[in-house]
Design brief:
globular; five-stranded mixed β-sheet; 2 domains; alpha+beta; Cytochrome Bc1 Complex, Chain A, domain 1
């Protein structure tokens, strides 16, 4: 299964925006249809408003564990039958867990959409879990953590950054979970979690492809309309307290050959804080650290020759705080302290002098270009819409995207940087080779 790191693309430009319609079933399930008639196929995705941030205290990783258990059989279709049927008819299926959501998708020919919907309806309310299946999947997620996190120094550092950056908010807990808590998860934990959250009124169905709302409505009613709505727990996440001081982390690891410098700031998102900063921060991320023409790459790699690479990431499509992250790889034998000093200088220069018209145009063009690329496939648009809705944005935000991007100003970008690049709401981390051991005489 997959772990979601965030939004995979950005919404579409006006020139390629598809027809989008939505309706709601009587049990509260929201349904969105995105028309794309290029091929006779569809992408069917169920998004649930529950993710790793909803893991109960002491049971980190349960949302991800439950995602795996959804493939271990239900009342009508036992373990293995789901995958067998999707594969038999040439489909593709998988799922992913993020902090805010868990989603399950099937890409398949339009004529097999009823089968896909029947499979998903069966396990939404009829999940079964054997002792053997539960034990098997727990070992799978533990091994997944071992491979993705325990054997990856940068992933271990990222966990420590999140734990330091978020003092109280559940985003401080890894999506995959802490190893010692994962080991204690049980079949009962999975079934309790399922009973608490997996109801039609906690789900968003998004179907993208060769279908219209008129065609989908009776199918949605047939397979999902009969599922009873459930009583959902209130989503109460701990609020993040004021950030009053900068934090620093230094990690040595035997598998590290070249140092790495990371600076992460807690920032606003489209669902949290100064929401008006989110789109300008997306443009800022593109301008500052996207490719070899970006400002940081030019300053640290090309001009000062202190680094071999510089990159920036920011995902504003979240319910809680976002992270504006900067990553710089120092050149061989360059002191990371010199790189950090140059980084601070570059950030201060942007705030003091602003950005150019050319930089603004390029950032906007990149945001729109990424959106256009998503138009080619079925899954891209469906995934975009899912993240928008999970973040609490209306479906029409999808169509308004080009105008919103065009409306970003240089002043808004600089203000977003000022608000976000507060050193007291940051973590600066160094990943270094192991410390040389002195020989005992």
């Amino acid at each position: 299964m997959l772990l979601a790191a965030g939004l995979f693309s950005t919404p579409l430009s006006a020139q390629t925006a598809p027809v989008v319609e939505s309706f709601t079933l009587s049990n509260g399930m929201e349904v969105i249809v995105i028309e794309n008639h290029r091929i006779p196929a569809v992408s069917h995705t169920l998004w649930f408003r529950v993710g790793a941030a909803d893991d109960p205290p002491g049971k980190s990783g349960i949302a991800h564990y439950h995602e795996h258990m959804m493939f271990q059989g239900a009342q009508k279709y036992p373990a293995g039958k789901y995958e067998e049927l999707v594969a038999r008819y040439g489909g593709e299926q998988n799922a992913f867990t993020g902090r805010d959501t868990t989603a399950y998708y099937i890409h398949i020919g339009k004529d097999r959409l009823p089968m896909a919907m029947e499979l998903e309806a069966d396990r939404m309310r009829g999940l079964t879990a054997s002792d053997a299946g539960s034990d098997k999947e727990k070992q799978v997620i533990i091994e997944e953590r071992r491979q993705r996190i325990e054997n990856n120094p940068e992933a271990l550092l990222d966990e420590q950054i999140d734990a330091a950056l978020f003092r109280h908010h559940p985003y401080r807990i890894p999506v995959i979970g802490w190893m010692h808590e994962m080991a204690g998860l049980t079949k009962k934990d999975v079934l309790d979690f399922h009973q608490r959250y997996y109801h039609p009124n906690n789900a968003i169905l998004i179907v993208s492809g060769d279908i219209t709302a008129k065609e989908l409505r009776p199918l949605a009613q047939k397979y999902y309309g009969g599922l009873a709505r459930g009583k959902l727990p209130e989503r109460r996440w701990n609020a993040e307290p004021p950030q009053n001081n900068a934090r620093r982390i230094t990690m040595h690891h035997p598998n590290v050959k070249q140092p790495l410098l990371k600076r992460s700031y807690m920032a606003s998102s489209l669902g949290y804080g100064s929401k008006e900063d989110a789109l300008p921060l997306m443009a800022l991320s593109q301008m500052l650290g996207s490719g070899k023409t970006s400002r940081l790459y030019q300053a640290l790699v090309v001009e000062e020759k202190l680094a071999s690479n510089a990159d920036v990431s920011y995902n504003g499509f979240s319910i809680g705080p976002a992270v504006f992250a900067i990553e710089v790889t120092p050149e061989k034998d360059v002191d990371p302290a010199a790189v950090e000093k140059a980084l601070d200088k570059a950030l201060a220069k942007l705030i003091a002098e602003g950005i150019t018209d050319a930089e603004l145009i390029r950032a906007k063009t990149q945001l729109k270009a990424e959106a256009i690329y998503a138009r080619d496939g079925l899954a891209g648009m469906a995934r975009i819409m899912g993240w928008l809705r999970i973040a609490g944005l209306d479906a029409d935000y999808f169509a308004r995207w080009p105008a919103l991007i065009d409306g970003i100003t240089k002043e808004q970008i600089v203000n977003g940087a000022k608000h976000s690049w507060q050193i007291n709401q940051s973590v600066t981390a160094l990943l270094l080779p192991p410390v040389a051991q002195e020989k005992t005489p």
